[in-house]
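Lab notebook, design round three. We kept the backbone fixed and only want residue identities now. Task for the bench partner: fill in a sequence for the structure below.
Input structure tokens:
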């Protein structure tokens, strides 16, 4: 069974480490970057993920950010760390997470969602 975890439905212990491992396995980023992100940027309330039998199988982060548009500063969410474990890809998990993310972003009052892929 899949569980959608968000700030209304808190996950069990080890979530941060599982998210870090998923990110590392998906993007092969250096430890220094992972340390920086998961120490200074990561917050539970900005993560959505699916869990299956206690293992995180798909996740994304919605980082609050400000951008300037026409000389006005507006709130946006930077979507990053969009990842699914290989054996669960193609099953619609990320599509579902993206829909939930856009609803969460809208409720937060952010005017835009920005996604910059790791590889073009």
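Proposed sequence:
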């Amino acid at each position: 069974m899949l569980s959608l975890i968000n700030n209304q439905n808190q996950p069990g212990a080890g979530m941060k480490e599982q998210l870090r491992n998923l990110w590392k396995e998906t993007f092969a980023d250096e430890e220094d970057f992972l340390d920086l992100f998961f120490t200074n940027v990561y917050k539970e309330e900005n993560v959505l993920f699916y869990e299956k039998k206690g293992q995180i199988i798909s996740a994304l982060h919605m980082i609050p950010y400000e951008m300037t548009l026409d000389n006005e500063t507006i709130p946006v969410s930077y979507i990053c760390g969009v990842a699914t474990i290989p054996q669960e890809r193609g099953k619609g998990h990320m599509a579902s997470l993206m829909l939930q993310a856009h609803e969460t972003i809208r409720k937060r009052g952010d005017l835009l969602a920005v996604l910059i892929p790791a590889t073009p």
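Keep this in mind before ordering anything: The chain has a mean pLDDT of 89.
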